[in-house]
Request: fold
Amino acid sequence: MQIVNVFGGERIPLSYEIFPPKGELPMEEARNVVAELAKLDPAFVSVTYSAGGGGNNERTSEIAQMGQDTFNLNMMAHLTCMGATREDIAASIALLKERGVQNVLALRGDPIPGKDVCDFKYAKDLIPTLREAGFCVGAAAYPEGHAACLDLDEDVRHLKEKQDAGAQFFVTQLFFDNRFAYKFLDKCRAARIRVPITFGIMPFMSKAQVSRMIFMCGASLPSPLVKVLARWEHDPDGLRKAGIEYACQQLIGLAEHGVDGVHLYSMNKPDVAREIATAVRPYL
Ligand code: FAD
Reply:
């Protein structure tokens, strides 16, 4: 199914993101994760793409195909264009088509050292090519602004350009303070961004993980989260429980705010996803 059709129904769609196993790890691991997520009746499952030499970009389409064919799920393959030529993208499209993938998240990707050649400067330049190839196309959104863009209004203008280029829905970057999401939503609506926006939440499992996310994504650290981290820092089980509870509160708040969708960065941890899905399902 085209993912754009999961929005606008009676319930708020809950989707999940997984990342492909690295290197020589067998597909079996991905299959187990997808099998467990399938039990949660996901609106869709998205699979990340590594263009930076992680060696797993072929796995993205393979996992998307496996989720569709084996578990009858709506799957979405991420695809980045940074460092790619038109020929590279044509080859990726051909592979996705061959594997029957219908949904693609069009991304620019992060700069790759030594790979300056790029026929697509921004995600908005990739989107029309993917639409022309017949995919249902989503793109990335940043409630606190993209890390390289210091002006949120400008970032929202670029988001509108992605909609105008053909993006049919947006999936957001993670954030730990819902107030950013609500303000962002207001800005998007004022900028005539009309396509569905699904908000991404990542349950934290460690202080180190939160620090990484702050530096990688530019996510703000709200004081309630600082207090939770300080309280459970030396108790892994307590922190895991607190991380799940914090994510549930964020998701319930978003649902009560009436967002189009919620997306869980489930980090290949289906047990965590299951606990969260069970807790938030009545609110969606
Ligand atoms: P773009 O939309 O092209 O924007 C990039 C920057 O350029 C922004 O600062 C934007 O404001 C600016 N910009 C856009 N248009 C213009 C313009 N016309 N003029 C001037 N500036 C402009 N990375 C991966 O490698 N693999 C993944 O699987 C992956 N999945 C992701 C999933 C989600 C939901 C999100 C939110 C991010 C994901 N990323 C992934 C990270 C993403 O690749 C990086 O954040 C990347 O730096 C930006 O990609 P983008 O598609 O948002 O870029």
About this structure: The first helix runs from residue 27 to 38. The first strand starts at residue 14 and ends at 18. The radius of gyration is 18 Å. Strands lie at 14-18, 45-47, 75-80, 103-107, 136-141, 169-172, 197-201, 261-265.
